[in-house]
Each structure stands twice: as C-alpha cells, then as structure tokens.
Amino acid sequence: MAPSDMDLLREYARDNSEQAFRTLVDRHLNMVHAVALRQTGQAQVAEDVTQAVFIVLAEKAATIPHNTILSGWLFRATRFAASNVKRAETRREHWEQKAAQMESTPPTPAPSDSEADQIAPLLHAAIEELPERDRVALLLRFFEDKSLEEVGLSLGTSASAAKMRLSRALEKLRLGFRKRGVVVSGAALAGILSAQTALAAPAGLASSVATLAFLKQTSTSTLPIVKGTLLFMAQTKSKSLAIAAVLLLLAGGGVVVQQSLKSTSTPPVAPAEHANRSNPTPATPATNAAAGKILVFRDSPSWNRNPDFEDALLAMGMDHEVKAATEMGRVDLSAYRAIIIPGSQRKTDFYQRYADQAARIESYVTNGGTLVLELNGAENSGIVLPGGVSMVNHGSKENTILLPSHPVLTSFAGKPIRANYASHGYL
Question: For a FRET experiment, which of 37, 262, 273, 374 has its CA 20 to 30 Å from that of 134?
Fold first, then answer.
C-alpha cells in the first residue's frame, strides 16, 4: 500500500525527505489551489496562497497531531491564508463603501441565476462550520474526488459507514444554508458539490511549490501570507477571549475589557473615587450570554491592523457577527457572550451612537456580558464607559500599567508592558 499522508509527513519531519514532501504536494496541490482560486478570484494571488500554505505545512510538520486528516488541515490553512489576503486587500474599500451607503437606501440585490450562484460565495464558510469528520468526508469525496472506499479508509471506517456520514454531512450543510436564507434541496447540493472537484493546477506549479516549501523559502508576496497564517493557527489554540484581546493590544491599540464583578474571581482594587462602593449588588448573568455569539460593532476598518478582530475570531473558530453602529439601538445585546468595540471609528457618528446607547450597554455588562473596547480614536468623543468610567485625552512617551493584577494581564505574570509614544489617554 502507498504510504499515508501522515506517514509521509512524519518521514519528512524526521528525515527531511524531499521526496516525501513532494509526494504530499502532488496529492493535494489541486485541491489547495482550487480552494484558494475560488476564494480570492485571482490567479496570481491563488498561486501565492498555495505556495504559502505548503510552506506553513513544512514549518508545522513536526507538530501536526498524528491523527490529523491532512485534507482537512490543508483546507482550513488555505481558508485562513486566502481570507487573510482578501481582507488585507479589500477591507478598507469595503468599509468605506458600507459607511457611504448607511445614509442611502440599500441597493436591492440582483436576482441569482441559479442555486449554484447563491451557494458559491457561502460554500467554504459553511463547510468549515461542520464538525471535523463531516467536513473531511465532504472534502475527500467532492473536492478530491475520492471513492467511498478511500473516504472510509481515511476516516478509519467502512465504505458503507462513509456513505452514511456523507449523507448526514450533506443534510447538515443544507440546514446551514437554510439558516443563511438559501434554500436548496439535498440532491441539488450534492450536484453543486460534485462540480467542486479540483481542476488541475497550472503546469509547473507543483514543482515550484514543492521546492520552495521544502526549502521554506518565501518571497515578498508569500511572506506576509505565511506569517498571517501561522498567526491564525497560533490564535486558534487560544480558548480565552481575554487573551485574544491582549494579543491585539500588543499589535498596536489600547484595549479595555470590562466584565461584571461576578465574572471575575479577583476583581481589581477600586480607585479612591469609587471606594464607597464596597458592596456591589451581585450581577445576574444574561440569559443567553454564555452560549451566544460574539458581536463586533464596526463602521470603519481598524487603523493599521492585520489581522483584525474579525480575523482573530475566525481563526479561533468563534461564532461572531459584525454590525454597523446604526444597529446599536435595535439589536438584542443579551444574545451575545461578548461585544467588541474596535478603535478608530471616526469616519461616521459611531461614538455618538455609542453614547446614545450607553445605558443599554451598561445594563449588558451589569448582567454578565463582556465588553471589549479599543479606545484609540475615541479620545475626543466624551463617551462614558460602564461604571461611570471616562476617557481623558493625553499623549505620553511612557505608558504604565496601574493594575498589573488585572485578569486581562494574567498571562504576562506581572511582566512590564511598555509602548513608547503610543498613549492616547487614560481612564
């Protein structure tokens, strides 16, 4: 029998075998390139993403768990890499257009020519939301054109068990599309997936990908993709939203995390002006907060940040939504486990809308919700934060953490955090 993907990966990691790595590239290049091309829509960018994904595979070969099904790993890595590139190229234009449309009547979407046209832009995201074994089964069967016997072998089951899993996975995928407002029959969905079989990648790409990935050699176009994908994967391992907030803080923006006192086992010492509040009323957690999505309110792109909050949440597999500031007064905040207010939202009336809804946001935090605020850009807004906290505009060369025992800094074990000429003010 031919060696399995993981056998080849172990051989490469152990012996630095170029042949083993080249075999892996030959097996999976078409699928990786096809996913990258569908997601980016640009041939050259798709080739760069493909190259970057296999460089990341070479970098991570020794640490990938032995029970990993490589097709699924490569699919997610390609999704991460392509999403990173696409966001970096289109985020600013997208949000500027969205802000301009807020004051005008939203355009009516053009009618779709077919079910395939409706499903195509949603397909990869919907597949990624499936449980891992269901996702892998669909990728092997439809994206890599494997037989039922080959799918079963990869999953460690029989062909009949693989057929049953594929049937259940298709139904889950169909229901996922229905939640997105796209109604499609199981038979039609199977037909659309059958058309996803990866076409052959451009001639010569396999050789260049294998050689450069084996040498871990990047170019000016692939280096940012490799770095971004490795960062995504590192963030995926994080289970704490607070840790994600600190990572973003170190990337170049002041982040404040506010939670109800009940949600923190060791609340920080209160400032002198609040010393009389010694026995706060215990907060009752919001009904749906623990199990809900994460909500990002945003009108404009963050300043000089890649990856952004949404990228980090996507990388960690955390369910989230993005809404404009116009929705602050209408959305049911209790349905979300955390709300994120990004910085640099100055192009619209974002901060005025926040101020108008301050009482609702205060109630959300009091009832157990978590509020993550990035306040660069809000220096002159005069907004008041939960608990009566306000921000004062004040630039400084040196920045000092006054509460090093705050829970958001736990992972740094008291180590100092310094950022010269980076202060926007204080709370």
Answer: 37
Residue in this structure with the two tokens 């926040």, named with its chain if needed: 354
Helices 43-60 and 70-101 pack at an angle, to 10 degrees, of 130
Predicted confidence (pLDDT) per residue in 255-309, tens digit: 555 554 344 444 433 333 333 433 433 334 444 444 568 999 998 888 777 788 8
Residue 282: exposure state from Cβ atoms within 10 A (0-12, 13-18, ≥19): exposed
Which of 228, 206, 215 minimizes the C-alpha distance to 50?
A: 206
72-94: burial string, b at 16+ Cβ within 10 Å, e else: bbbbbbbbbbbbbbbbbeebeee
How are beta strands 384-385 and 336-341 bridged, if at all? unpaired
Residue type at 368 in one-letter notation: G
Percent of the chain exceeding pLDDT 90 equals: 16
Question: Which of 69, 33, 66, 181 is closest to 118 using CA atoms?
Answer: 181
Distant-in-sequence, close-in-space partners of 59: CB < 8 Å, separation ≥ 6: 216, 226, 230
Rg of the chain on CA atoms, in Å: 24
pLDDT tens for 320-375 read: 889 999 999 999 998 899 999 998 888 888 999 998 998 899 888 988 889 998 88
> Residue 393 gets which letter from DSSP?
E
Cβ atoms of 354 and 383 closer than 8 Å: yes
Q: Where are the domains of the chain?
A: 5-228, 239-426
Name the residue type at position 362.
Answer: E
Taking a C-beta distance cutoff of 8 angstroms, is the pair 355, 382 a contact?
yes
Q: For 260-366, where are the E strands, in sequence order?
A: 293-297, 320-323, 336-341
